Structures are given as C-alpha cells and as structure tokens.
Amino acid sequence: MHFSPASSQHPSVPHLRQVLRIDPIWSAYALADLRADLLPFCRWSVAGDGLALVYTGLQPPILLTIGPAEDVAAALAQAAAPVASAPGTISLPEEVYLSVRHEHLPAVERWYDVQIRRVMVRMALGQEVTLAPVEQPLTRLVPADVPAIEALIALGGPYAPDGFAPYQVEDGFFYGVEADASDGAGGLAAVGGTHILNFEEGVAAIGNVYTRADCRGKGYARAITSEIVAQLRAAGLPTIVLNVNNENTIARNLYDSLGFVEHCSFVEGSVKRSANDSE
Fold first, then answer.
1. Would the pTM count as exceeding 0.90?
2. pLDDT in tens, 216-230
3. Domain 127-258 has CATH 3.40.50.300
C-alpha cells in the first residue's frame, strides 16, 4: 500500500489523529500538519498503532515515524509496496529528512542508507508552567524582516538552525533583538520563533533560536524564548515543544532553566533510499 494522500475529507484522518494523540508531544509536528493548509502535503501509512508519515511541504520531504517498532516496520513496508492501481498516491521518496525514534531505526534502515545522522532531544513545557517576561527590548518580526533573519542564520555555527522557512514568520510568532552599540556590527543580534503551530490541535513548536556569536551570553535567547512562550500561552496553546541537539549543552541548560523537560531523544538527518532495499 502506498501512502494515502491527505485531505480533511480523507476517511482515515480521524484514525491518523487517534494514532498521533497516543503521544502528542512526540507527534506535535504531525498534529500541527493537520491544519487545512498543510494537510495536502502529508502522506501516510498506518499499520496498527504504527505510522509512517511523509511531509512534502519541505525539500527533502520529512519522514516521521510513530508507534510500536513492529507496527512502524509494517507501515513502512506498506508504503514501499508498489500499487499501480492507486492513482494520486506516492511511495517512499528516494530522499527524505528523517525524524525518527531510535527504536525505529532498524525498520528505517531496511529502506534507507542511514549513515549521517545527529541525535536530537524533544523537550516540552509543562502545561502548568508560565514564564515571566524578561526585561529585554524585543522586536516582533514580520515578513519584511525575512532577509535579515536569513542573513543572521547564514552566519552559521555548529548548531545554527537549518529549518527556517520564510512563511513561518507570518504564520506564527517571531521575535528578534537588534544589536546595540556594545554588540559591534548592527542588524539583528538574535532571533527565534515558531516552526509550526495549530490552534485547533493545541500544539506549537518553537525553533530557529539563534544568537550571533559576538552577542552571546547576554540573555537574548532567554528573552526571545520566554516571549514566544508567553504569546503561545496567551493564544491558548497547551502543548509547546522544541528540539535541541543533544550535544548543545548551552541550549539544553537554557531550556532546562525555563522549565522545558526532556521527553525523548531521536535521530534526524537527510538520507537516501538504499540500493539494496527490500522492496
């Protein structure tokens, strides 16, 4: 069975939501993708309580796996099996960006050459946690600020964001700190925002938090993250998550201090179909 093309009228959407709700923190991005404007970019295969979901709105497409390992293996096998009589569907893409739990790697490695990957941590903020405003002048960023955001992130570094897309600025909440005289060069000194949110599902993901190297240690990331959380709480979103590289101890310590709690670790990275897959 190939992946089912998604639409709000698709008969399996309620089942999809049911599977995602088993672990809403791990499934937060996928729950957010159930928005009417994003759902058409989703393809999925469900087997029991296992799910393989491909989001094609980014390139390469993102492959997310959820559920018991044996059910995930069955879902991937379904997606990889050719079905010529299923117009409008797709099989497993030749290249994907993985977002998978460690226990799902053996199933994924049946179809993809998983060589280069990084270990990430999914963190979530307890619904009872509220963050006090931080005394730091912040600027609410708008689409006109996209070039400045891209220029800042392009400065790079070992943990520079790689998931920024211009539509995210208009879609959610983005804040920045303008460099002052003590920061040397002008322009944005720090930035952060939401990767994705879904008001109906009550989920949001924070991301793209980045501070210029010469401006670090001044609390900019703390101020930006706190303001984003405040806005999400005011909007009534109970589930707030973020991802952080397992080796980024500075960021981990920051999010720990703000009340985020580790939910699980997972693997991400761009991979291609194995030449010896078991299709």
1. no
2. 999 999 999 999 999
3. no
